[in-house]
Amino acid sequence: MTDDTLQTLDFERIRRALAERVATRMGEDRVRAWGPLPTPEEAARFRRATQEAVALGYRLGGVFDPRPLLERIRRGERPEGAELVEAAATLERAAELKREILAAGEGELARVAAGIGEHALFRRRVAESLDEAGEVKDDATPKLKRIRRSLNPLRERIIKRLEAVMDAHPEAVQERYVTLRRDRYVIPVRAQQQRQIGGIVLAQSDTGATVFMEPASVVPLNNELAQLRLEEEAEVLKVLAELAGLLAGDAELEATLEALAWLDAVRAAALLAEDWGLAPAQDGPPGRYHLVGARHPLLEDPVPNDLHLDERTRILLVTGPNMGGKTVLLKTLGLAVLMHQAGLFVAAEAAELGWVRRLEVDIGDEQSLEGGLSTFAAHLKKLDRILGSAAPDALVLVDELGSGTDPEEGAALAQAVILRLLEKGARGIVTTHLTPLKALAGRAGGLENASMGFVLEEFRPTFRLQVGLPGRSYALAVARRLGLDEEVLRAAERFLGEGGARVEELLERLERQQTELEARLAAAERTRREAETARGELQARLEGIERERAALLAAARAEVDRMLEEAHRQIRELRAKARKGGSQKRDALREVMKIRERTKPRPAAGTNPLPGLEPGMLVEVPSYRQKGRVVRVEGEETLVQIGQVKIRVPTAELRPRGEGAPRPKQAVVVESGFETELNVRGLTAAEAVEAVHDFLAEAVATGNSPVRILHGKGTGVLRREIQNFLRHDKRVERFHDAMPNEGGHGVTVVHLRV
């Protein structure tokens, strides 16, 4: 892109906006020269880095520009210690920034940050040699340490010697204090009495009444102090020279400064995107420019417009009155392309932009007084250049094509230029006031009429782009609205001719239709949004109902768990009661069975009861794993006697015994919850026998057989005592050792009379 193009499209203001957002002078120098990048790949990398910077939000605080210091060092000038401390702090901050970016993951920022050096030697030597103010530390070198150890005692000796002189000649001393003149310690003496002390006068007061004298006895000590100071200064200069050499000779320094400048520019681009509400554009094929909600980023409260140029619409011919926003539209597209190719985000809700090889712009009145060219001549020179570079990957922006000369000749020339641009496949926007061009779009493929909206009743432009509709000039309508003489207006209409009047009438009709269609479209859009809002509300309500349902289910499950835990607690208490024997044992077992009945699942409502059940019929009760006899059928429940206990069970759960017995249409088999294996390992023989006794009682009551007693092999004592108990228990039908693969001699399987 040429500098003229950048200037015409106000890209310099984009540079200034970036410069306001950088943190370093290095970054400022970078963005003040910023412009379109050489390749699409470079621009895409910078955009990706900007997106990463928006997400990461890093800062470059604590970084200063060391380049002026480097230039002075390379010219042989001595650096100040404070400058070297600042340089070390900058390089330390750069290393911290590198670690921060690399920790965030891979990407364009990490790729650049990886080029930042550590500069460990320079940073370490600065920390060892200089304090925070840039003063050389006493222990920077052994020699400097020795010199400074000698200086303080020597100063004390000089001061004590001077105090002794003042004590010896109090009448000659003007005031009692020690000061420095010409870097030598002196005392104030009355001018008339200086001979009493003797020595060297180094200065005097403004009035001449006081002289600052170095007594003769102090001269050798001051000379020694001066020598030490010279040695100190030489050693300090040596330290500073060493540090300057380390900085200037650091091989990684240029790469670090380059990376910092680039990262600063990226951060400025990210801040600009946040402040201006910019969005990244997608790379499109050459000749494709699609922008949704595009606006001019440098205007306050601009009106957004959609812009589309592609193979179908190669040239957009925009007509309409002055001050309607045609020129702004040109600059909006041109600036979006420039910013995209500079790696910046663009002022649009969404955008897809092809890469532009040449951006040709002819906007504004640019008379060339030096070359003796008129506005029209300058216009023609630009048109010639534009036609020479026109191609499918070139973008052309021409304002007021054909103006500046006779309207008929200008219109003919403009038509020829547009047809030539279409023939060469160029893309672009052309604005004009010339009426004959409005009819060209119907005859030339790839050319599309457009106009900028204008509300005549309110006498104001809308700045809205209306594609497909040529614009009216509104000259006569505006003149009539402003009260121009009606006879003059009628004469103008006659001069306009029947064809011109028909064109204006047709355009007016089209405008009305366009307005009506836009109103209908807006109403449809409002209806769609309302439907979307209603749908969202319904979805939210449905989600709320689903959450409430889930909460109710969770509460129900919690209540069931609580009830089951309570039932288990009661069963444990009843088992303890059953161990006492007698009638309490029988009552406890009955209570256990009732609890199990209350807590077992019920069949679903509506289950058909089992047909053919009659009192006295023998049935199986799967939930208790026992047989029983029907006492009374009570609809969905049946009273069944199991041994000496009568219980109610769901009718659909029962299984009649015997051939030809009716079968339920639907049965529910529920586990009773009784564990059919008892583990007595670790108990004494007496404890094990008692546990087996209770275990068999509950097994008989719940109809579980066979059951397993896990006693282990060990010494065989538990097995022998338990099996001896089983031989004499009337509830036991038989017992035997388990199969070898199911525990063998360590498990006794017991079959009960149930």
TrEMBL record:
Keywords: ATP-binding, Coiled coil, DNA-binding, Endonuclease, Hydrolase, Nuclease, Nucleotide-binding, RNA-binding, rRNA-binding. One of its GO terms (molecular function) is mismatched DNA binding. It comes from Oceanithermus desulfurans NBRC 100063. Residues 500-577 form a coiled coil. InterPro entries: DNA_mismatch_repair_MutS_C (IPR000432), DNA_mismatch_repair_MutS_core (IPR007696), DNA_mismatch_repair_MutS_sf (IPR036187), MSSS (IPR046893), MutS (IPR045076), MutS2 (IPR005747), P-loop_NTPase (IPR027417), Smr_dom (IPR002625). ATP binds at residues 320-327. Pfam families: MSSS, MutS_V, Smr. Its EC number is 3.1.-.-, 3.6.4.-. Signal peptide: none annotated. Acts as a ribosome collision sensor, splitting the ribosome into its 2 subunits. Detects stalled/collided 70S ribosomes which it binds and splits by an ATP-hydrolysis driven conformational change. Acts upstream of the ribosome quality control system (RQC), a ribosome-associated complex that mediates the extraction of incompletely synthesized nascent chains from stalled ribosomes and their subsequent degradation. Probably generates substrates for RQC. Endonuclease that is involved in the suppression of homologous recombination and thus may have a key role in the control of bacterial genetic diversity. Homodimer. Binds to stalled ribosomes, contacting rRNA. GO terms for biological process: mismatch repair; negative regulation of DNA recombination; rescue of stalled ribosome. Belongs to the DNA mismatch repair MutS family. MutS2 subfamily. This is Endonuclease MutS2. It comes from the Bacteria. Residues 678-753 form the Smr domain. SUPFAM superfamilies: DNA repair protein MutS, domain III, P-loop containing nucleoside triphosphate hydrolases, SMR domain-like. The gene is mutS2.
